[in-house]
Amino acid sequence: MRKDGAPPVNPVGKIFLCFETKPFLATLLAVTLVMVVWNLQPYYENLISATSRCSAATSPTESLPIKSTTLGGVTPLAEKKLVSSPPADPNKRTFQAYGNAAALFVQMGAYRGGPKTFAVVGLASKPIHVFGRPWYKCEWIPNNGNSSIRAKAYKMLPDWGYGRVYTVVVVNCTFAENPNADNSGGKLMVYAYYGESPRKYEKFTALEEAPGSYDEAKYRPPHKYEYLYCGSSLYGT
């Protein structure tokens, strides 16, 4: 007996199956390529913009040597002649504020009241004097190189009822001895403290005496003036 083999495969069916599979694969490949290109487009745009920025950033560096050559012809500041400022007018009143907000002390003048006494006149913050306890200290720094002399000052408030934000303050500095007895000159420093703590303060030069400017005869009778008024200059001269 003869055994029956497998039925013969129809070659026409194979051809039709091949024609049906290839278009599907081609369509799938085309769609895949389109999606890849579509996703890579922002990356290329960012890459192009980054390269353009880099080229723009490197362009000024190329011109730096040209700028450096032009700077070589500039004359140094030391070779220029400095114009001296005109001397300050002693008759012109200037306000020198020290401190923050409502100033702790605004110096308006200072003078020697005697061989051992100085007075510093100015304005001060009235709220600080109402709600706080500011105090002052004086120091004389001589020009002869000797050690400085210190003294605790006391304040006077002559116009307490007039001021609102500021009030007049007269700081009296009385030393144990004449700080400029040898007439070598020096300067009077004032320490203005915000409160009881000695850590927070303002330091300023209230008065300077040139060598040979002290005349003790002015403070012995007969005196040049009989009366001295200390008050606020805001209400008159």
From TrEMBL:
Subcellular location field: Membrane
Origin superkingdom: Eukaryota
Keywords: Membrane, Transmembrane, Transmembrane helix
Main localization of the protein described in the UniProt heading: membrane
Record membrane topology: Single-pass membrane protein
GO terms for cellular component: cytoplasm; membrane
GO molecular function, one term: glycosyltransferase activity
Protein name per UniProt: Galactan beta-1,4-galactosyltransferase GALS1
Organism, as annotated: Sesamum calycinum
